[in-house]
Structures are given as structure tokens and as C-alpha cells.
Design a protein that fits this description.
The protein contains 11 helices and no strands. By secondary structure, it is mainly α.
């Protein structure tokens, strides 16, 4: 039965894409959870849903990832900047972005003749047929960047995660590392939500990190 399943191309693409997304999310999730940015995945997935819904609502039949990814990366940057503010905390900023993006996406999605389509419902709950060759190439590059980042800059990532002021005092460009994490997380979210959906994609960032924290005591 398994061999028959993997005889189909879309199953192969979904499996490979799912493994790559999970690998990136698990690695990035450790630092994000420890820095109390665990819900950033939820916020960015809603932003991504909003961009897709707006594009579908105004009549685009095929939304290029090269448009969606920069918008979500920019949203990640704004979230980090707002989170650094003393007036608005990171969890409040993420909640603000999540609800606003979902509402805007719903409004524009409803503008399409006939209301919400199968495409928008698939974005909410995921669709295994959404994974294509372009997604795999982007996720392969992203996975290589994430693994390389952790291997080469492990000590700096450790310092930025646990004591950002100390890391900054020792000369580490903490803002650059935070931006790298936000950008890679944004790409992982955009690709992953096409398979898992807006409502579930944040779980692959939170669950692996929380599960490992119950077993291990080392970073």
C-alpha cells in the first residue's frame, strides 16, 4: 500500500516538502520558543493567508511565491520591531497581526463571485496537492541555509537566544540574527501552510521544541 501511494508524484512532493518544512521548523522553533516568539508562526501564517486571499479575491488565478514571501518577511520584520518596543509586547503584536490579516483576507476573499472558493479553504486547512516542484526547490535552499546557520554560528545563536544583551555587548549583530530567523521562519511558514494549512502550521514550530524540552536539558 505504501509503495502504491508513493508511486504518485504529488505524494512524493508532499512527503519531501513535509520533511524539509518540519526540519526547518523544528530547528528554528527551539530559539523562537525560548525567546517567547513561539506564536510568530501563527501570526505569519495569517499574514500569508491574507496575501493569498487578497490575490484570489481580486482575480489572480495563480499567486507567485516571489510576491507572497517578501510580504511575509516584511511582516516578520515589523513584528520583531514592534516586539522590541516597551509599549507593545511581542504577544500582543502577534495577536494584532493575526486577527487583522485574517479579517482582511476574509473580506477580500468574500469579494470573489460566489464567495470563498476551494483554493481559500485549502489555504485554511491545507491541501496535499498544493506542493509543487517550485516549493521543493525553495524549501531545499531554506533547509540548507537553516542547517548551515546552526552549524557555523551555533555559539552566537546560543548567546542571542538566552542572553541577547550579552551577545550584543560581545559584538554580535543581534538584529541581523533576529532578521535571519524571521526571514527563514517566514519562508518555512509560507511553504508549509500550503500543505498543512493556516490553522496547523504553527504547531510544527511549537510542538517539537516543547517536546524536546521535556526530555533534554541542553540547547
Amino acid at each position: 500500500m505504501i509503495s502504491e501511494m508513493f508511486a504518485h508524484g504529488f505524494i512524493q512532493r508532499a512527503f519531501i516538502g513535509g520533511v524539509l518544512v518540519s526540519l526547518c521548523a523544528a530547528l528554528l522553533g527551539v530559539s523562537l520558543v525560548l525567546k517567547r516568539y513561539s506564536m510568530i508562526g501563527d501570526g505569519l501564517s495569517h499574514v500569508s493567508f491574507g496575501v493569498y486571499a487578497i490575490a484570489i479575491g481580486v482575480g489572480f488565478t495563480k499567486i507567485p511565491l516571489l510576491i507572497v514571501i517578501p510580504v511575509v518577511i516584511f511582516a516578520a520584520y515589523i513584528l520583531l520591531r514592534i516586539g522590541e518596543s516597551t509599549k507593545v509586547k511581542s504577544d500582543a503584536a502577534i495577536g494584532l497581526f493575526s486577527s487583522s490579516a485574517l479579517a482582511i483576507g476574509y473580506i477580500f476573499g468574500s469579494l470573489k463571485h460566489g464567495g470563498f472558493s476551494t483554493d481559500i479553504n485549502s489555504l485554511m486547512f491545507g491541501s496535499i496537492v498544493f506542493a509543487n516542484r517550485q516549493d521543493l526547490i525553495i524549501m531545499l535552499i531554506t533547509a540548507a541555509l537553516v542547517i548551515g546557520l546552526f552549524i557555523i554560528f551555533y555559539n552566537r545563536i546560543f548567546a542571542v537566544t538566552f542572553d541577547e544583551p550579552f551577545a550584543k555587548a560581545t559584538g554580535t549583530n543581534t538584529r541581523l540574527f533576529n532578521m535571519l530567523f524571521a526571514s527563514l521562519t517566514a519562508i518555512t511558514i509560507v511553504i508549509g501552510m500550503r500543505i498543512m494549512g493556516t490553522l496547523l502550521i504553527s504547531s510544527i514550530i511549537i510542538f517539537p521544541a516543547l517536546s524536546s524540552m521535556q526530555v533534554f536539558r541542553k540547547f
